[in-house]
């Protein structure tokens, strides 16, 4: 089974917006005057932090910033691409919400990330509060379960042929999780509602029971 593509990792998507940013700050002599911030690299995200569409929110919504030096890149300087469906969006305005913009195009793109994640986040009205306009947004909805399964693709490490590991992507998706691997945790999965994440699954784990136990533990605390 092939490992997941790089942009499946949210940190990689965030990094794509500032590929040339130095990892260590460069000292600047100001001679008593406030030093000016250096201009962003030419291949960095062009919009200021006041935009709702920033590297973090865009990455969470499934987008990465394509290489601007690619000869096939479009001339739209703020065009981003979804790691899951390949759909591109550009022309961002200050109040545009990445989750909402991705979710409202789901009928066109058939994107599993847009449906399983963005459609949920776009209807959040508080930290742990949502206002769903339809029961189709509830975790038990069949369409959402199917979309969550779609986020795993063929990359869930415990689905490989001959594996005796009981934690299949089907079970994890049914329990309410989407696939969110990291560079160190290839089997991490996250609930798109409460953002609870689990990794290093053991053979006898029951995803729904594990989720319920830790959620209850958090409430007790």
Automatic annotation (TrEMBL):
| Composition-biased stretches (Polar residues) | 15-29
SMART domains from the entry? BIR (SM00238)
Segments carrying the region annotation (Disordered) are: 13-52
Superkingdom is Eukaryota
InterPro entries with a match to the protein in the record: BIR_rpt, IAP
One cellular component GO annotation, for this chain's record? cytoplasm
> Do you know which Pfam families this protein is assigned to?
BIR
One GO biological-process annotation of the entry reads:
regulation of cell cycle
* Residues forming coiled coils: none
The molecule here is called: Inhibitor of apoptosis repeat-containing protein
Which organism is this entry from? Tulasnella calospora MUT 4182
């Amino acid at each position: 089974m092939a490992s997941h593509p790089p942009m499946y990792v949210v940190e990689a998507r965030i990094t794509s917006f500032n590929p040339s940013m130095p990892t260590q700050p460069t000292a600047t002599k100001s001679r008593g005057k406030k030093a000016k911030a250096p201009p962003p690299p030419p291949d960095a995200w062009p919009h200021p932090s006041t935009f709702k569409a920033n590297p973090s929110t865009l990455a969470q919504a499934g987008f990465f910033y394509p290489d601007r030096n690619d000869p096939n890149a479009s001339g739209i300087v703020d065009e981003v691409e979804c790691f899951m469906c390949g759909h591109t969006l550009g022309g961002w305005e200050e109040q545009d919400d990445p989750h909402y913009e991705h979710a409202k195009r789901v009928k066109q793109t058939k994107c599993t990330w847009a449906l399983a994640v963005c459609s949920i986040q776009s209807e959040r009205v508080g930290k742990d509060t949502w206002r769903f306009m339809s029961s189709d947004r509830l975790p038990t909805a069949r369409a959402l379960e199917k979309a969550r399964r779609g986020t795993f693709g063929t990359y869930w490490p415990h689905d490989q042929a001959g594996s005796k590991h009981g934690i299949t992507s089907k079970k994890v998706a049914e329990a309410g999780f989407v696939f969110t691997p990291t560079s160190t945790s290839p089997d991490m999965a996250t609930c798109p509602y409460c953002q609870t994440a689990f990794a290093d699954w053991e053979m006898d784990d029951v995803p729904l029971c594990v989720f319920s136990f830790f959620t209850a533990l958090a409430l007790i605390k």
